[in-house]
Each structure stands twice: as structure tokens, then as C-alpha cells.
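Input record, target 12 of the design panel.
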């Protein structure tokens, strides 16, 4: 009885270890798709697009999702996830900067529309949460390696 229990427990831990290996790759793909959906939601809200800048979140999302797909290969995981974290950081900082400049124009005649503010806020939040999850994963991987 003890032997079967130990082997079942070992198999469960092996499954969890394999699942954790691909967890951040899957997370990158999900966050990438969420960023693409931010662009699509903005286009749907406007019943079309007036400017190609509406696809900026989709560009960041596509790059992050592509890095997630590349990270599914074991030998490229570390490089792909670091690149995805860098893209997320650039997206988060850029969105915060643009959102801040839009907030400064609120009282003027060039006030941004609510959909633009929502798009930049959603992009900044998604990108920065993704970067935080990446940093947490990198720290855990470093601890597990040591």
C-alpha cells in the first residue's frame, strides 16, 4: 500500500512539475490574446477604426503571445519569456505615459474619448500584471535552480 501511494504521489509531483514548466508560456499566450481583445473591443465600440493606433495593444499582445508559443519549446523558454517580459514592460510603460498625457488634456478642448482612456488603462494594467507575474516566475525559477 505504501509503495503504490508513494509512486502515485511521485507521478503527481512529476505532472505538476511539467505543468509548471509551461505555466508562464500559457500565461503569456493568454495575456497576448487579452491584449488583442482590447484592440478588437475598442474597434467594436467605435464601429470601425479611425486611426491605426487602435491596434497598438494588439501589436504588444501578438508579440507576447508569439513569445509564449516559442517558450513552449524547452530550449528557448528562458530567452522567449525574458523577451515577453521586456515587451510587456515596454507596453506598460508606454501605455502609462500615453494615458498620463491624455489625463493632462482632460480639461481642454482636445480631451480624449473614454474608449481611448479605457484602452490605454487596460493595456497598462494587463502589461504590468504580466510583467509582475514574469518577475515572480523568474525568482521562483532561480530559487528552484539553486
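The sequence produced for target 12 reads:
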Amino acid at each position: 500500500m505504501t509503495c503504490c501511494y508513494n509512486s502515485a504521489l511521485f507521478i503527481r509531483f512529476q505532472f505538476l512539475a511539467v505543468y509548471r514548466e509551461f505555466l508562464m508560456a500559457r500565461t503569456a499566450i493568454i495575456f497576448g490574446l487579452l491584449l488583442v481583445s482590447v484592440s478588437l473591443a475598442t474597434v467594436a465600440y467605435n464601429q470601425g477604426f479611425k486611426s491605426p493606433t487602435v491596434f497598438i495593444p494588439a501589436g504588444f499582445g501578438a508579440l507576447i503571445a508569439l513569445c509564449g508559443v516559442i517558450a513552449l519549446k524547452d530550449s528557448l523558454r528562458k530567452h522567449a519569456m525574458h523577451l515577453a517580459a521586456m515587451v510587456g514592460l515596454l507596453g506598460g510603460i508606454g501605455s502609462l505615459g500615453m494615458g498620463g498625457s491624455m489625463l493632462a488634456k482632460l480639461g481642454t478642448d482636445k480631451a480624449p474619448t473614454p474608449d481611448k482612456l479605457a484602452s490605454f488603462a487596460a493595456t497598462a494594467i494587463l502589461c504590468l500584471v504580466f510583467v509582475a507575474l514574469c518577475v515572480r516566475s523568474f525568482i521562483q525559477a532561480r530559487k528552484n535552480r539553486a
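Residues 25 and 72 are 6 Å apart (CA to CA).
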